[in-house]
């Protein structure tokens, strides 16, 4: 399974999406900071599953219909920072999609996440991450979960890794930094957290028009996971 995550920098990098999806053979595409009113229904071979409606920095998920059958999508509001309250609206910072893998019959949740910016504290972002995981678990008890996006957490990731392990999640950083625009704020802003999946690789892709670099997450199902069927809702 190949999932790309990309912060479009207020939609500025939207023209790169078709090439990204095709060149890197993406099965799903998770976006942050997109203008959801201007998103096309398809991006190359990928179909738009859903997008947020109540956030100026929109989130969206595209997926490959021949790979996945979509059951449902949900958007979630998370705890707000002062920045979110001042620069409203910022109601939705998470979108999840529950799917069945048509190749293996496994069921899982794929999600796009955007934490509050660096003006907030790491403590608040940890709260958002834990809350996001809880919301995604609510989409299907015991389901494997992949949450990718802009975590705005370039420092103290070892501490974050320890916090996540306590709840059963793994944090996976990419092979290179994903944000280098400013000398002070640089590092791994964009990465993945997962439950029940084996993350084979997280690759930082070439720079485009955004101040973030896209990442490509390659994942396989854990040895203890078993296929689980169900009836599509959409």
Q: Can you give a write-up of this model?
A:
The structure is a single chain. This protein is of the alpha+beta class. It has one domain (2-221): 4-Layer Sandwich (Deoxyribonuclease I, Chain A). It has four helices and 13 strands. It has helices at 17-23, 82-86, 122-137, 157-166, and strands spanning 2-7, 28-34, 42-43, 46-51, 58-63, 68-76, 94-101, 107-114, 144-150, 170-172, 190-195, 197-204, 215-221. Strands 3-4-5-2-1-13-12 form a seven-stranded mixed β-sheet. β4 (46-51) and β5 form a beta hairpin.
Beta strands, count: 13
Approximate shape: globular
User: Could you tell me how far the N terminus lies from the C terminus, measured between alpha carbons in angstroms?
Assistant: 22 Å
CATH-level-4 superfamily name: Endonuclease/exonuclease/phosphatase
CATH class: Alpha Beta
User: What percent of residues are in strands?
Assistant: 35-45%
Uncertain residue segments: 230-234
Helical residue percent band: 10-25%
Major beta-sheet overview: 7 strands, mixed
Backbone structural class: alpha+beta
Which CATH architecture? Answer: 4-Layer Sandwich
Number of helices: 4
CATH topological fold name: Deoxyribonuclease I, Chain A
User: How many structural domains in the coordinates?
Assistant: 1
What is the spatial order of strands in the main beta sheet? 3-4-5-2-1-13-12
Task: Write down the Rg.
Answer: 16 Å
Give, in order, the helices and strands.
EHEEEEEHEEHEHEEEE
